[in-house]
Every structure is written in C-alpha cells, then in structure tokens.
C-alpha cells in the first residue's frame, strides 16, 4: 500500500490568540510535518472550507480542530454545517474546547463529531493532548480520501 508522504493540513478554528499560539507550538514540537491554517471564527472557517472569496485556492484540511465558543458563528453551528455538507462531512472534526458541559459534549456527538477533547489549562497537559491528536489522526488513523 502506498504511503501518503504529503504534508497534512490542519484547520484550527479558534479565536483565542493564546490557545492558537500554544497549539501551533505543540504541533511544531512533533515529528510529523503539517501545515496549520487558522480560522478565528465560524464564518471564516466555513468560507475557507467552501473555498469562498479569498479562500478560492484553499487546501482541503485533513482534520479540523474546532473550538465551540466562537464569534460570528459558534462551533456547534459550524459542526452542523460541515456534517450536513456531502463534500465536507467526511473530514474528521475534533472539538477542542474548554467546555466540560455535558450538554455540549452530547450535542457535539449528536452532530457526529469524531472526537471531543476538553482543553487543559496546564501547558504540559495541553501539549500532550495536541501531540496525541496529531499522532493518532495524522500518523495512525487512515483518513478518508478527498471527495470533491
């Protein structure tokens, strides 16, 4: 079976600058080569995924790291839109949120999130979480083929 040697692309949908910086740093500290694209709100994330306007040449992400509490369009709405779109629904989505609210967790799984992870405020733990996501989703799991 051929090995996929191209760099993977992660769409990080996050509005907190500190979390963006920490997640990028955690991803840089791993062996896997990946490109991180940032969307700071739900509207920007959907424009990127639909290749609208300035994102006409956007690369389809291999995985999406999605915060729930976003401006303009929250993560729950983004998740619902992605999973309802036949051309996007197979992209694995990992909710990475500070919310430990059972309703948020249940709703995310009802909307077919692939994984829900609560962000840690502990720097070491956050690095372990992000590195674990990268190791599993980009190095171990077989991702769906691009279906455009």
From TrEMBL:
Q: Organism's domain of life?
A: Bacteria
Tell me the keywords, alphabetical order.
Answer: Phosphoprotein
Residues of the signal peptide: none
Answer yes or no on keyword Plastid: no
Residues annotated as coiled-coil are none
**In-chain residues carrying the UniProt-annotated modification 4-aspartylphosphate:** 67
| Keyword Phosphoprotein found | yes
Span of domain Response regulatory = 9-134
GO annotation (BP), single: phosphorelay signal transduction system
Q: Which InterPro entries match?
A: CheY-like_superfamily, Sig_transdc_resp-reg_receiver, TCS_response_regulator
Protein name per its UniProtKB record: Response regulator containing a CheY-like receiver domain and a GGDEF domain
Organism in which the protein naturally occurs: Allocoleopsis franciscana PCC 7113
